[in-house]
Design goal:
single chain; 44% strand; 5-stranded antiparallel β-sheet; 852 residues; 5 domains; Immunoglobulin-like; mainly beta; Neuraminidase
């Protein structure tokens, strides 16, 4: 009798303990019974009151087993909130496996209670990640061409200086159409069109900082912890978000937990260093069971809300699969092979600490309890909890932000308004009577409509900043509370922009930032120690090996032109800034360049006659559409053998990359070609990247069975491009092509004047090439209104050619000598100059060698 009573009491206490533990668990990931988790899944456990230090068997109270693999070993990780525990298994789970977890924590609480519970979840059968092409299908990456003209016109070859900052030639300038009384903050934005830059601008559109990046590092903003963050697609550990401090140094990275990719739409960093991101996942679904005509192997994109602690441990994972129904995306094609049914694009921390999530393709804002994962309310879409006073509600919105008064701003893209229009709105929500009231909105007159991206920000002055995102629309429309426009600007080149923000900001770089620009006649270095007003001069370190430690030049300006480098040589550069106390800064970033000085008239194409095989060239075939091969035949020609040309001429390409085309310069493009049958090909000088601008404005070339010489002379009307290419698009027909003697030359002009760039001294530069045949070029400087003569002499002092003899305005000049009428040998060229007022004179001689 006593034994049975004892056993009853033990069983009763165990039941109470299990109930007590389940009540004590505040948050658990994975959710018990949930399915389709990645094999890298980390267990997350958070208790209401019990802290990790209260568990006496902390490192052994979790046991994990799989129905395919048996027991899994693992380790406990304590998160920095003092409450949450991670359990990371030593090995990844197996595909399709059912995982059972048992918790047996012993606590130091009342009666040393043993609180047991268990739960299970399953791992997805197929671990899937998309190809880059598939990734484009659901991201904000439509193939839209924008005007690539990104260069501010400059009358001199020196960089433009604004705010004491030197500006690269391809900088994406903005045009300000309205400026009245804007908020005093700085503008944070990046361009999508032309070379990508992240930049901070003042209200006049002048940069106070910029960073030329390899990819579009968007969602660029100041976080509540005071750091700058941006999304990067490559580098820094494989793509994620990075943080820069006020010295513009990269100090942190932000990633998704194991098993998930980082979405580019949002990063929110809290003052304690914890951060929220949107995590990406892809699953293969049988949509034929869900919608009529559904694809049985559809790839469905998942978006999850993730909180990580400052040590990159997951605190909270809120999975879309557990909370949203795919059929709620009423505007999306659910019969497609690739379905982005949520398109989560914003996370915001509400005033009560819970989370706001914007789901574009569901027309919905969801509020989520950050502690438990419970949905608190849903605004918009088919599951709307609110009655609106606005019949348009929201559709395909791109932004949600909370205001200090508890209201919310939203950028309503309005894709499915009738007719479509975009706007900024402020909503007041009443969760007692479940009403949504529009208390403020801005719709432009006439309406603006951007079907993608965009954002709204309420500024400290009470103004509202609106980014219309699309290249055709302003990047900033800043309006007063009454709707008066205080500032409006757009990129001059019509580039897109994901989000734009305004923040107060004060930064001071710890080191200069260096950019190289390689021109046919010089190397230009631009360097800026942003935010530092105490700079005496810059030291330029250069050499033919990495980490150069020899000063080769100094400059009181934030740039320098280098003409006297050894040609066809590798050079490395870095720069320091020296202040008025003679303190030298840290080195800048190091940049490398291959010096390839090519004067006008010389072929810019190395191996244009294919005498060195196919070196320096590239060959591309769109293998899903075409089949082709290439070789250098016995005649030394490039022979392209085409079995199937595909459906477009670009499906088979011969490419010559890395050419520099300078704005305003004139070029001659030539090549020989013939074919086995008469046909058309497309040969041009173009931008090496979207939008593939055809700089040569050359149309289709008609190729016959007889070898012909094709020529095209053109002026580079677009901004200087340091990475253009020659392309021969020869697809679309099944006819072999033969190409030879490809050349691109700068057209020789007698004199290039630049009278607005006034040098401080007379100067006669070295000619290049030297020796030469028959053309060589040099520069000379004239600081005053002067009469200048340049004469070529033999070694006996006999004058054989007067190259120039005329009055010059102050400026920098380039001159070409044509030696085709001279014999091989050593010559000298002399510059003699006399200022018109007679106060200054100059004479200098340099030698040149003609080899024929």
């Amino acid at each position: 009798m006593m034994k049975s009573r004892f056993l009853f009491m033990i069983g009763f206490l165990c039941l109470l303990s299990n109930i007590a533990l389940q009540a004590e668990i505040q948050y658990l990931h994975p959710i018990p019974g949930s399915e389709n988790h990645p094999k890298e899944t980390v267990l997350i456990i958070r208790f209401n009151d019990t802290k990790p230090e209260d568990i006496t068997n902390l490192h052994t109270f979790i046991s994990v087993s799989g129905d395919k693999s048996g027991d899994y070993d693992g380790r406990i990780i304590r998160c920095n909130d003092g409450k949450t525990i991670n359990y990371q298994t030593s090995d990844y789970f197996k595909a399709g496996e059912k995982i059972t977890v048992r918790l047996t924590p012993q606590t130091t609480g009342f009666a040393q209670a043993v609180l047991d519970t268990s739960f299970s979840f399953t791992i997805k059968d197929q671990q899937y990640a998309p190809t880059p092409t598939q990734f484009l299908k659901y991201s904000d990456d439509p193939f839209i061409s924008v005007n690539a003209n990104t260069q501010k016109q400059n009358a001199t070859f020196d960089p433009i200086i604004r705010n004491g900052i030197s500006i690269p030639s391809d900088f994406p300038w903005v045009d300000i159409s309205i400026k009245n009384n804007p908020d005093s903050g700085y503008i944070f934005l990046n361009n999508w069109g032309g070379p990508p830059y992240n930049m901070i601008l003042d209200n006049d559109g002048n940069p106070i900082w910029y960073w030329k990046t390899d990819d579009r590092q968007r969602d660029f903003k100041v976080q509540p912890d005071g750091r700058l963050t941006m999304r990067v697609r490559e580098g820094y550990g494989g793509g994620g978000h990075i943080a820069l401090d006020s010295t513009y140094s990269v100090v942190d990275t932000f990633f998704a937990p194991p098993g998930y990719a980082v979405d580019e739409h949002e990063l929110q960093v809290r003052p304690n260093g914890n951060y929220y991101i949107i995590a990406l996942e892809w699953q293969i679904w049988d949509m034929s069971d869900i919608v009529p005509g559904g694809n049985p192997s559809a790839i469905v994109v998942g978006n999850h809300v993730v909180e990580m602690d400052a040590d990159d441990n997951p605190l909270f994972i809120w999975r879309c699969w557990d909370n949203y129904t795919i059929t709620d995306a009423v505007h999306e094609d659910l019969t497609a092979g690739f379905i982005d049914y949520i398109h989560m694009n914003a996370i915001e921390v509400d005033l009560d600490g819970n989370l706001l999530v914007s789901c574009r393709h569901m027309d919905e804002i969801t509020k989520v309890n950050r502690q438990t994962g419970r949905i608190m309310w849903r605004l918009g879409g088919v599951n709307d909890d609110f009655a609106w006073d606005d019949p348009d509600r929201i559709t395909y919105q791109h932004d949600i932000r909370v205001l200090s008064n508890g209201n919310y701003t939203i950028f309503d893209n309005g894709n499915h308004h009738d007719p479509s229009f975009s706007r900024a709105i402020e909503l007041k929500l009443d969760t007692l009577y479940w009403t949504a009231s529009t208390v403020w909105e801005f719709r432009d007159n006439p309406d603006k409509y951007t079907w993608w991206m965009g954002n709204v920000q309420r500024l400290p002055s009470g103004n509202t900043l609106i980014n219309w995102a699309d290249g055709s629309l302003p990047k900033v429309t800043e309006v007063a509370p009454d709707g008066t426009k205080e500032l409006e600007l757009n990129f001059e080149n019509g580039a897109h922009c994901y989000r734009v923000f305004k923040f107060p900001w004060k930064g001071k770089a710890i080191r200069p930032y260096l950019i190289l620009e390689s021109y046919p006649d010089r190397i230009t270095l631009l360097f800026n120690k942003f935010g530092d007003e105490d700079i005496s001069h810059y030291n330029i370190y250069g050499g033919k090996s990495p980490n150069p430690d020899q000063v080769i030049a100094t400059s009181h300006q934030p740039f320098v032109h280098l003409y006297e480098l050894d040609n066809l040589s590798d050079y490395y550069f870095r720069v320091t800034a020296v202040n008025s106390s003679d303190d030298e800064s840290e080195y800048s970033n190091e940049e490398h360049v291959f010096v390839n000085i090519i004067p006008p008239g010389e072929n810019m194409v190395v191996n244009g006659d294919f005498s060195d095989g196919f070196n320096y060239w590239n060959f591309y075939v769109e293998q899903s559409e075409a089949s082709a091969d290439h070789l250098i035949n016995s005649s030394g020609e490039l022979e392209i053998q085409i079995s199937s040309g595909g459906s477009s001429n670009w499906h088979v390409q011969a490419l010559y990359p890395n050419l520099v085309l300078v704005e305003g310069s004139e070029y001659l493009f030539e090549f020989d070609a013939y074919a086995t049958q008469n046909r058309y090909i497309q040969a041009e000088l173009e931008k090496d990247g979207n939008p593939w601008t055809n700089y040569s404005k050359m149309g289709l070339s008609y190729i016959t069975q007889e070898k012909q010489r094709f020529s095209r002379q053109f002026i580079m009307e677009e901004p200087t491009d340091f990475n253009s290419r020659i392309v021969f698009n020869v697809g679309a027909e099944n006819t072999d092509i033969f190409i030879d003697n490809v050349s691109l030359r700068g057209v020789v002009t007698n004199l290039i004047e630049d009278t607005q760039d006034i040098p401080p001294l007379y100067f006669l530069g070295k000619n290049y090439p030297n020796p030469f045949n028959p053309i060589t070029t040099f520069r000379y400087h004239v600081p005053y209104l002067s009469h200048v003569s340049i004469v070529v002499y033999t070694i006996l002092g006999e004058s054989v050619k007067t190259v120039i003899d005329k009055t010059h305005h102050p400026g920098v000049y380039a001159l070409t000598i044509d030696g085709s009428d001279l014999s091989s040998g050593l010559y000298f060229y002399q510059m003699a100059a006399q200022s018109i007022d007679g106060s200054n004179s100059f004479k200098q001689v340099r030698k040149l060698v003609i080899l024929k």
